[in-house]
């Protein structure tokens, strides 16, 4: 069941996005860039979700007279479910990003900086 | 059967009541006293062989739990509860910050410990006793130090409990049961096949017992804790609570009976031999360290575990005379240590300090307390005809009958050393020069006086009629399958080498005293002079500015001995535990640095962890 | 398969009420707070009904889409007891909030709180592995916002840290879920659990590692728990109580559900499919967390931070208990989770009252007994319960934990020795605080007046702790049957959801 | 009948006490004489101690209160009591109770009483002297105990009467032959027990003004003298019973005691005083070594007792 590996180019893209996102998160000290990094990781995930639904020989998952979903006992239709998953994931990613940005704004107001290294409290 | 439950429920009820009314000090103390009395009344109804069982649906199975009265447990119960009655009676007028409800909770736990037939309830009660006593120790005279003492005790005690917990489960996994009896007989059955297993499991238990009794090398907490706990609680701590460990040892010592035919050291199986040495070393360490103490509570803390060393050495022999001697000494220790600590508490409550070198001459102000203390230390030193002689004498006989000459000499040295530090305390507190700042010190209240008179009476009575204690001890010895010592009347102590008729000794001493006082009366008259009237022919030049304190020699009473016992002091067990604690703390402060507060570090950690796992998965793949 | 669709209200009502709270907020701020209390009372009573009348185990099936085709809620014994605990803790905290939520946007705070509790209940009851992700994000987003709430700026820093780590964690989780989906083409937990052996072992291992790593963030396991101290310290105390009393319960539940039910391979001791035994992984993580948490807590001077590290350590203990894999171990884990949830929530609530009168350093606890005996006694009860001392709830769970790990034997003996050592360390710092409370004289002699609304939850928690300590049967029966659900995945879980499925 | 028996015992006890006191005083007088002769003086008559005691008891004195009185009485009374259990020649007042350790502990009670009395006087010199005496005791009791225990183990009894009985039948049965090392240890210990040089730090005349006795006068000093004399008798008597086979009659008993004491006096005459801590540690070296060695030999010989 590893048909989806046939989409290696998309998979590589998805992995690259995740890697880039993590790299940004790990190397940038600015909060906004970190948020962008997280967003890129999200995008990578979304791309991954879409990728696993499909492989080059698949057909649309709707039964019509000409569209045979099963060929030689194998299902060749694309999987419709991940598309609903990716919608959810996108929405959640959006919500998280919005909240993160709101917090970032507040942090800038209260701390006067966006450098993550400086956002900590001394023990009192 | 229901009175067995009463032994648990009465103290718990009393504890709850005392906790509720703890703002009203006298009422709280009265509740505590009456709870002890009621418990004692219930105890009178209880006979050997009474049992009560129930089962607890827990851990997915029904665990049989039970209470049972053995000769040993009824002996221990009487000791603890009767002593508690005395102590709480004395405490009615005592003003330390001790919380009575914790004492009562400890009582419930201790009753349970002595009656438990399964390890589950034994451990439950043991832990209950542990934390109740830890909390009771908070609240000493000096807050920071008492906190330190309580924490030290807590660490050792909880460490010991966990060790015991491991032992319990190692055992119950082998036998599938929590019953003490089944587990012990299982150990007996595998004793010859797997001696090292048995040793390992039993030593897990022994750590807990050694901690509780303050046996070397786990003795280090004792002075800190006794020295700093509330004055009203110290007598209970040192007289009663240290005996729990002894009770624990006695659960497992019958194992060694099956080793009697295996060659050991001097006819003793090697576990017994080792424990005898632990006991002897404890006795010596306690005595020697007590030399150096200036704090009276600490001094008697050392004295306390030194005596526990005597007891352990004796019971570890597990011969009829050894067991008898050990249990007898346990009883005597309860009495004289109680007398000593109660008088010490009385003195501290009057003078308000614990440093002995700042006391002195108090016999003029507190004569009855002085006498009680005198009888107490005479008993502790093992002087006939007071209680304490018989047991020490039997311990020596028990030891020497096995040819344990080094250990016996060590014990005798500990005994002589105890005479030294007792004299020192006696001198520094009660004798010597009375400082003017104590001119207004009064003798303690009537309740305290009654307690003290009772203690004097008990020390003399049980000194003359040891048979009243030796009889129950003989039945304990019999219940362990050993042959009890012969008995020949209440006034006899029958040892291995010789027996003593305490009444005749008492009569001889009394007659000699009558003669002495007659001689005192018929010889020439004397004249009473004040304490300043000495040394300088009655003249004290004003410009010397002499004060009584300057005439008091008690600060470093045995200073010349310092050099001789310096090698002993170099062995810093205490330092080991402290250093261990320090390094744990250092480790903690290093590990804490992981959590820097920088989210990128956390992300690195998380990603790093993930990568490590993936690599690990890859390798396994 | 038993169905009881009415129970969908357990998830639906709090979410519905949460989003209608702004409407009530227009009327009165107090009303918004009371709405949380009422909603959670309903939740609590309903879950109690399910527990006591033994309605469980049952499924909630939406629109006749029977699992594995439709999304379902499965409420077995484990979910029941955890929902009872969560709704109880939530109810108590909401009562506490009547007093504590005074400043700022009270209405939205109530909204977020209710959303968080509802999300947690959904997290626990859902039978769909992707819905777990959704509910994780619902609780996540609401908890980031909750953590950022408050007058102090450190709340924002803590919340941001939580957000970053948690986002990465949920991404990892999602990747794990998707990898499994590519293999089996289903998202239903029961079906995945039944067919897990049909997957490619290498990918399965990778998916398992991703899932564990992602869920360890919520379950506070090292090294994924960097957010814990900062967030707990930064958030206001009721939020810290919520995070440790409710949030961590959900986190651990999902971790255990995934590892033991989905990946689990039944045997005397549960292990997992795939090349790498995830139970071992969790045991290592748990032990490391216990040690690191306790040692870090030892040197803290800030009591809130101390509680945070202690929370972390307790979670490690729970994870370690589950990782034993036997029924007794799972039982110990559930029991310990419940005890921790109650006791730690209580401690944070007490701290909230104390902080409103003074600082939150360890020194500020000095003389609490003289300022407020009630708080002193309840704090002591909580601390002693966490230490596992008898007469308090924690004793029984720790006892069972030790029993379980010695029954497992082998290298668990060493783990247990380490954990017990860490427990001694824990005893030290808690007893130190207890000592400060009772022995020292307070720096300021001002009395702390505990109002009725914070007093109710604190007293209720204390009474519950002692009740469990004296009658462990309250929790032990249901916990033991819940443990069965984890250790025997076919008869405990899968067949209850999909009766017709054949295990492979 | 009981009363008659009691009266008989009483009179016998009185007699023993008087005998011991007289012997002790006599020994003291003779020792003074010997000492004087060694130092080329004439010395006091050997009855001088009797006269001194009588004089002291009849002189008025000062007291520091009832603890002082009680302590000094308690200082010599237990010595007399202990005497009652000592086999003196063929005669023992309470043969069934002549347990050795009990006698040792009764003697300790006398020290306790004495200490209480002199310390109650409040004089710092008494306190210094007492601390020295106690430290010395910590020294010499340890080897003494080792020897006592080896005799216990060897004789398989703790009764002095039985120990004496086992040595009957000639010189070769005496314990001094069977346990020479132990005897040597005890002889050294005796020097310390009696507080003679080089172990006279406690009294230390002219250094701490006679130490414990500094505040004593009149009858109190007399009591001290009685204590010392009886202790002398008791301690030498114990050693005679332990090692020299007891005696068939009083005279031989006293003669044997005197031999022991004579050695002590001679040593006293020629040795200087040791430092305080040196005295204590000395006992923990040679005498303890001898005692332990003796014990080891006995145990190896005797094997394990059948318990």
In round numbers, the mean pLDDT of chain B is 83
Alpha-carbon distance between the termini of chain B?
A: 63 Å
**Overall radius of gyration of chain C:** 21 Å
User: Regions of chain C with pLDDT < 50 over 5+ consecutive residues?
Assistant: none
Number of helices of chain C: 20
Order of helices and strands of chain C: HHEEHHHHHHHHEEHHHHHHHHHH
Reading side by side through the largest sheet of chain C, how are the strands ordered?
1-2
Q: Averaging pLDDT over every residue of chain C, what do you get?
A: 87
The biggest sheet of chain C, with number of strands, parallel, antiparallel or mixed sense and barrel status, is: 2 strands, antiparallel
Strand order of the largest sheet of chain B: 1-2
Point out poorly predicted stretches of chain B: none
Percent in strands of chain B? under 5%
Rg calculated over all Cα atoms of chain B? 26 Å
Number of strands of chain C: 4
Overall form of chain C: globular
What is the H/E string of chain B?
Answer: HHEEHHHHHHHHHHHHHHHHEEHEHHHH
- Count up the domains of chain C: 1
Q: Helix/strand/pairing class of chain C, anyone? A: mainly alpha
Please explain how this structure is put together.
Chain A has helices at about 10-25, 30-50, 80-110; strands at about 70, 75. The model of chain A has no long low-confidence stretch (mean pLDDT about 85). Chain A contains three helices and two strands, in the order H-H-E-E-H. Chain A is elongated and about 65 Å long. Chain A has one domain (about 5-120): Helix Hairpins. Chain B has about 625 residues and is mostly helical. Among the domains of chain B are: about 265-530, no CATH class; about 570-620. In chain B, about 70% of the residues lie in helices and about 5% in strands. Chain B has helices spanning about 1-20, 25-45, 70-90, 100-115, 120-135, 145-175, 180-190, 195-215, 220-230, 235-250, 270-290, 295-315, 320-350, 365-380, 390-400, 405-430, 445-465, 465-480, 500-520, 550, 560-570, 575-590, 600-620; strands spanning about 50-60, 60-70, 490-495, 500, 525-530. Chain B has a two-stranded antiparallel ribbon with strand order 1-2. A two-stranded antiparallel ribbon of chain B has the order 3-4. In chain B, helix 2 (about 25-45) packs parallel to helix 4 (about 100-115) and helix 13 (about 320-350) packs across helix 18 (about 465-480). Chain C is built from 20 helices and four strands. The mean pLDDT of chain C is about 85. Classes of the chains: A mainly alpha (about 120), B mainly alpha (about 625), C mainly alpha (about 500), D mainly alpha (about 300). The interface between A and B is small, with 10 and 8 residues. Strand 5 (about 525-530) of chain B pairs parallel with strand 1 of chain D, so a sheet runs across the interface.
């Amino acid at each position: 069941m590893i048909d989806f590996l046939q989409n290696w180019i998309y998979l590589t893209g998805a992995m690259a996005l995740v890697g880039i996102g993590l790299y940004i998160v790990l190397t940038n000290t600015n909060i906004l860039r970190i948020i962008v990094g997280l967003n890129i990781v999200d995008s990578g995930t979304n791309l991954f979700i879409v990728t696993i639904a499909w492989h080059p020989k698949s057909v649309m998952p709707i039964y019509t007279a000409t569209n045979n979903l099963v060929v030689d006992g194998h299902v060749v239709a694309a999987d419709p479910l991940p598309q609903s998953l990716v919608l959810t994931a996108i929405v959640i990613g959006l919500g998280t990003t919005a909240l993160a940005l709101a917090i970032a704004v507040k942090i800038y107001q209260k701390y006067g900086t966006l450098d993550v290294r400086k956002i900590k409290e001394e023990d009192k | 059967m229901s009175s067995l439950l009463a032994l648990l429920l009465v103290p718990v009820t009393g504890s709850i009541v005392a906790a509720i009314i703890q703002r009203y000090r006298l009422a709280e103390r009265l509740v505590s006293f009456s709870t002890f009395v009621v418990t004692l009344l219930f105890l009178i109804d209880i006979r050997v062989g009474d049992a009560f069982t129930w089962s607890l649906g827990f851990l997915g199975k029904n665990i049989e739990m039970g209470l049972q009265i053995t000769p040993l447990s009824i002996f221990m119960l009487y000791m603890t509860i009767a002593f508690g009655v005395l102590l709480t009676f004395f405490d009615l007028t005592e003003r330390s910050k001790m919380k009575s409800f914790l004492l009562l909770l400890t009582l419930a736990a201790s009753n349970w410990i002595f009656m438990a037939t399964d390890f589950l309830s034994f451990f439950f009660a043991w832990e209950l006793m542990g934390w109740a006593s830890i909390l009771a120790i908070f609240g000493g005279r000096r807050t920071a130090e008492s906190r330190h003492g309580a924490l030290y005790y807590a660490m050792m005690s909880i460490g010991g409990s966990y060790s015991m917990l491991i032992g319990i489960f190692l055992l119950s996994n082998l036998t599938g049961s929590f019953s003490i009896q089944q587990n012990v007989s299982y150990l007996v059955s595998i004793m010859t096949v797997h001696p090292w297993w048995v040793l390992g499991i039993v030593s897990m238990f022994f750590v807990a017992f050694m901690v509780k009794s303050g046996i070397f090398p786990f003795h280090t907490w004792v002075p800190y804790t006794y020295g700093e706990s509330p004055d009203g609680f110290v007598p209970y701590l040192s007289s009663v609570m240290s005996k729990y460990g002894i009770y624990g040892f006695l659960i497992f010592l019958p194992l060694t009976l099956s080793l009697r035919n295996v060659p050991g050291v001097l006819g003793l199986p090697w576990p017994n031999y080792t424990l005898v040495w632990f006991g002897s070393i404890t006795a010596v360490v306690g005595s020697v360290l007590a030399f150096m103490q200036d704090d009276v509570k600490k001094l008697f803390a050392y004295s306390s575990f030194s005596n526990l060393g005597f007891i352990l050495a004796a019971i570890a022999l597990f011969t009829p005379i050894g067991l008898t001697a050990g249990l007898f000494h346990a009883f005597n220790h309860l009495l004289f240590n109680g007398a000593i600590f109660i008088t010490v508490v009385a003195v501290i409550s009057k003078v308000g300090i614990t440093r002995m070198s700042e006391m002195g001459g108090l016999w003029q102000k507190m004569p009855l307390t002085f006498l009680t203390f005198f009888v107490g230390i005479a008993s502790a030193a093992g002087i006939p005809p007071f209680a304490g002689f018989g047991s020490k004498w039997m311990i020596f006989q028990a030891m020497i009958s096995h040819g344990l000459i080094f250990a016996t000499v060590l014990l005798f040295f500990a005994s002589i050393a105890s005479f030294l530090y007792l004299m020192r305390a006696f001198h520094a507190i009660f004798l010597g020069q009375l400082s003017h700042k104590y001119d207004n010190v009064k003798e303690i209240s009537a309740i305290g006086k009654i307690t003290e008179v009772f203690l004097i009476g008990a020390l003399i009575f049980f000194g003359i009629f040891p048979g009243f204690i030796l009889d129950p001890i003989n039945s304990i010895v019999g219940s362990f399958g050993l042959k009890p010592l012969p008995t020949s009347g209440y006034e006899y102590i029958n040892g291995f080498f010789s027996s003593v008729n305490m009444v005749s000794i008492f009569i001889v001493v009394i007659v000699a005293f009558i003669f002495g006082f007659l001689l005192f009366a018929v010889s020439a008259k004397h004249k009473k002079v004040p304490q300043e009237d000495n040394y300088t022919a009655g003249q004290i030049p004003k410009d010397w500015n002499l004060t009584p304190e300057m005439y008091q020699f008690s600060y470093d009473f045995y200073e010349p001995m310092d050099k001789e016992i310096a090698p002993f002091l170099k062995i810093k067990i205490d330092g080991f535990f402290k250093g261990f604690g320090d390094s744990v703390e250092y480790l903690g402060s290093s590990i804490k640095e992981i959590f820097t507060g920088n989210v990128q570090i956390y992300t690195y950690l998380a990603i790093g962890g993930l990568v490590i796992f993936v690599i690990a998965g890859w390798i396994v793949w | 398969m038993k169905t009881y669709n009415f129970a969908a209200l357990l998830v639906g009502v709090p979410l519905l009420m949460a989003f209608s709270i702004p409407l009530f907020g227009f009327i009165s701020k107090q009303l918004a707070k009371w709405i949380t209390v009422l909603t959670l009372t309903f939740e609590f009573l309903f879950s109690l009904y399910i527990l006591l009348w033994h309605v469980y185990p049952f499924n909630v099936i939406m629109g006749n889409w029977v699992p594995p085709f439709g999304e379902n809620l499965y409420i077995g014994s484990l979910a029941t007891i955890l929902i009872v605990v969560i709704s109880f803790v939530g109810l108590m905290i909401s009562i506490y909030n009547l007093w504590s939520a005074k400043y700022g946007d009270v209405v939205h705070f109530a909204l977020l709180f209710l959303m968080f509790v509802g999300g947690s209940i959904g997290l626990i009851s859902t039978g769909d592995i992707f819905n777990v992700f959704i509910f994780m994000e619902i609780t996540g987003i609401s908890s980031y916002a909750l953590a950022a709430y408050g007058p102090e700026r450190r709340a924002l820093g803590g919340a941001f840290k939580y957000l970053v780590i948690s986002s990465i964690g949920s991404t990892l989780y999602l990747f794990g879920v998707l990898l499994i989906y590519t293999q089996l083409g289903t998202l239903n937990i029961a079906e995945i659990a039944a067919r897990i052996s049909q997957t490619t072992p290498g990918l399965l291992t990778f998916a398992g590692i991703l899932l564990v790593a992602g869920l360890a963030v919520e379950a506070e396991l090292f090294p994924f728990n960097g957010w814990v101290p900062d967030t707990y310290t930064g958030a206001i105390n009721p939020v810290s109580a919520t995070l440790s009393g409710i949030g961590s319960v959900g986190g651990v539940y999902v971790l255990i559900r995934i590892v033991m039910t989905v990946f689990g391979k039944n045997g005397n001791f549960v292990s997992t499919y795939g090349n790498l035994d995830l139970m071992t992984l969790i045991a290592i993580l748990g032990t490391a967390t216990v040690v690191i948490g306790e040692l870090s807590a030892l040197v803290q001077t800030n009591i809130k931070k101390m509680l945070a590290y202690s929370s972390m350590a307790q979670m490690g203990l729970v994870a370690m208990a589950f990782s034993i894999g036997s029924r007794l171990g799972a039982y110990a884990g559930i029991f310990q989770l419940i005890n921790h949830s109650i006791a730690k929530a209580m401690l944070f609530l007490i701290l909230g009252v104390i902080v409103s009168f003074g600082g939150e350093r360890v020194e500020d606890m000095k003389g609490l007994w003289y300022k407020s005996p009630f708080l002193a006694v309840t704090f002591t009860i909580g601390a002693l319960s966490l230490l596992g001392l008898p007469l308090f709830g924690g004793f029984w769970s720790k006892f069972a934990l030790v029993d379980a790990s010695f029954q497992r034997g082998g290298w668990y003996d060493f783990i247990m020795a380490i954990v017990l050592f860490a427990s001694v360390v824990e005893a030290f710092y808690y007893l130190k605080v207890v000592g400060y409370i009772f022995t020292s004289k307070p720096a300021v002699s001002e009395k702390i007046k505990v109002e009725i609304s914070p007093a109710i939850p604190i007293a209720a928690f204390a009474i519950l702790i002692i009740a469990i300590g004296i009658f462990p049967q309250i929790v032990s029966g249901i916990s033991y049957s819940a443990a069965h659900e984890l250790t025997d995945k076919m008869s405990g879980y899968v067949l209850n959801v999909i009766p017709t499925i054949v295990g492979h | 009948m009981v009363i008659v028996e009691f009266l008989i015992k009483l009179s016998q006890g009185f007699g023993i006490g008087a005998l011991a006191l007289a012997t002790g005083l006599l020994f003291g007088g003779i020792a003074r004489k010997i000492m004087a002769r060694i130092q080329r003086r004439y010395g006091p008559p050997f009855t001088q101690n009797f006269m001194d005691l009588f004089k002291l008891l009849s002189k008025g004195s000062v007291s520091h209160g009832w603890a002082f009185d009680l302590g000094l009485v308690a200082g010599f009374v237990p010595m007399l009591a202990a005497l009652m259990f000592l086999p003196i020649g063929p005669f023992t007042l309470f043969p069934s109770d002549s347990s050795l350790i009990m006698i040792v502990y009764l003697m300790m009670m006398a020290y306790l009483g004495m200490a209480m009395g002199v310390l109650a006087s409040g004089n710092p010199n008494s306190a210094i002297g007492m601390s020295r005496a106690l430290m010395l005791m910590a020294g010499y009791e340890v080897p003494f105990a080792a020897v006592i225990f080896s005799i216990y183990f060897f004789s398989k009894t703790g009764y002095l009467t039985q120990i004496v009985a086992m040595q009957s039948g000639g010189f070769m049965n005496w314990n001094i032959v069977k346990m020479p090392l132990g005897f040597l240890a005890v002889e050294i210990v005796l020097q310390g027990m009696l507080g003679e040089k080089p172990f006279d730090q406690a009294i230390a005349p002219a250094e701490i003004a006679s130490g414990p006795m500094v505040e004593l006068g009149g009858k109190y000093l007399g009591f001290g003298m009685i204590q010392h004399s009886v202790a002398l008798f008791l301690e030498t008597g114990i050693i005679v019973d332990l090692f020299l086979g007891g005696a068939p009659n009083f005279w031989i008993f006293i003669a044997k005691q005197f031999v022991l004491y004579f050695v002590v006096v001679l040593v006293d005459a020629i040795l200087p005083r040791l430092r305080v801590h040196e005295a204590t540690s000395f006992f923990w070296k040679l005498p303890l070594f001898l005692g332990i060695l003796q014990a080891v030999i006995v145990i190896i010989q005797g094997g394990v007792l059948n318990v």
